[in-house]
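Sample entry (113 residues):
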Amino acid sequence: VRVYESGGGLVQPGGSLRLSCKASEFDFSIYTGIWYRQAPGKERELIATISRSDIREYADSVKGRFTISRDNAKNMHYLQMNSLTPEDTAVYYCNRRPAPVNWGQGTQVTVSS
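Predicted structure, serialized as tokens:
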């Protein structure tokens, strides 16, 4: 039972990225999907959730810029990130709730000119 993150990279300020989270050996549709991030020297931060009924919640730091979504047919969820700033530079992780799985390797997002 694992999750796999992908889609990170280097982007200029103001740019966009779309992160993907693939569930392995479990049905993501029956869980809340969660995105976290961890910037260098900082604690891991919960930034977005999407419930089984598609209720979305966001941390203030990303509200209005990031959008979480899910595709149950593909057993995946996504994080669309727009208007990126250097403060968004971090490793991004996904997980589920309840019963979180072991952390994946994450995907690095670097926002820099």
